[in-house]
Amino acid sequence: MDEQSLAPRQRFPRWMLAGWMATAAFVGFHHVPAANASHSHTGWNQIHIATIHGNDGPAGGGSGPGAQDEEYCVMSETTALPAATIAPFIEQTLAKLDFSLVWDGAADWRVDLWRTQKFCNQYATADRNRIELEFRIRESWAALCGGEQYACVTAVNPVTDSSGRHQHYLYMNAHLKREQMAAMGERARKFINHETGHLVGLRDPSYHGDCMHSVMHNNLYLSYGCTDPVWHPTTSDFVSVRNIANRAN
Questions:
Q1: How far apart are CA 88 and CA 154, in angstroms?
Q2: For 150-163, what is the mean pLDDT?
C-alpha cells in the first residue's frame, strides 16, 4: 500500500529500524502516488527492483534464477501463521496460477520470480544479501508502515540504472500482516499482488476517483472511491510493468 526508500546499507540485520532511520532518507507515499494505476515512479528516484530491466534466461523463464531474475524468500515472525504455511501460498499467487493472473513472466520474462529453498531468516548473512526480494509476515507493521491497517514496501540500496537517468534499488521487501494473510483466499492474494506491484514499480491512486481496473486501484482504496474487487494483476498492470522494464530515463 505504501513505498519507502532507504539509504544504502547492508540488507542484514533486518530489524534494526533505528539504524535504518539514522542512515536513511525515507521517501513515503501513503496514498499520495501518481495517477493511473499502472502509473509508476518517474524522475530520478524510481522505486522498483533493479533487475526488472533485464533477464539473463530464455524467453519462457530459465531453469534457475540468474543474476537478472528476481529471487525471493519468505519469513514469518508470528507462530499464528508459520512461514511453512504461507510460503507455498505466496508462491502459488505469484507464479503458479493461470499465466494471465500472475506476476511471474511479466514484461517478457524480465519479471522472473524464483522462491528460495529456505526461509529468509534461515540464511547466513552473505547468502541472504544476494536475495532480491523478501516477503515478511508479522502481526503488525504499524511502526514501519505508518499505521496499524497498512502493509507496505521498503526499498534498500539505491543504485544508478545503466541509462544513468534514474536510481532504482538492489533489494526490496514486502511487509504483510498476518491478519491479511490468515484466510489464504482472494483477500490475501489481493494484498500479496498489490505489494508485489510496488516491488516492480507501480503506484497507488493519488486522489479520490483515481480508479482503474488494476490490482493497484482496487477496493483496498474504498476511501478513494475505488470499488473494483480485482485481486490479481490486470492487463493494464502488465503493460505498465513492461513500460517500466523498457525505461531508459
A1: 22
A2: 96
